[in-house]
Structures are given as C-alpha cells and as structure tokens.
Design a protein that fits this description.
single chain; mainly alpha; about 0% strand; globular
C-alpha cells in the first residue's frame, strides 16, 4: 500500500472474504453467534451494520457493485458530518 488516499481497508476486507468463499465454497462458513453481546445475529452482519454486504458476497456480486451499493448513504453521511467537524473543513 503506497497511497493511503486510494487504499480502502473495508473493501479489501470484503475482497478477502469473497476470495476465500470463491476458493473454498465447500469449506467456507460464516462465524455463528454469539458474538460479544449479540446471540442471534451473525457476527459479519454486526460488523457490517446489517446483512446486505453478506448477502451481496453470497450472491457473487462484484466488488464494484458492492461498493456502489453504499455510495448514496456514504455521500449523505459525509454531508451531514461536515457540520460537526472541528478541524479540516
């Protein structure tokens, strides 16, 4: 990694999970609950905020499709957070 502005750690995380699922579909499985305080939801769904990313990975969506699915929400969040930033406006 030579350019931290271009590196997307969350997308890299998703790419690694997709690669393992594609390479070992018969051996891959999501970690089952419990996970910390939660006893029903899958840990991947907790870490990602909901089940959408897991469902996209399972459906074989491309990284580009997965990343595009959260861009609208990300743009809205970035706009909202500007009001609360103390530095770097």
């Amino acid at each position: 990694m030579t350019d931290r502005e271009l590196f997307d750690p969350f997308l890299t995380y998703i790419a690694l999970i997709r690669a393992v699922l594609q390479l070992y579909p018969d051996r891959f499985e999501w970690r089952k609950p419990p996970y910390e305080y939660e006893h029903e939801k899958l840990p991947i769904d907790i870490l990602c905020g909901n089940s959408l990313v897991r469902e996209q990975i399972e459906a074989g969506q491309s990284l580009k499709e997965i990343k595009m699915s959260w861009q609208k929400d990300l743009t809205a969040f970035k706009k909202l957070r500007q009001r609360y930033l103390m530095y770097g406006r």
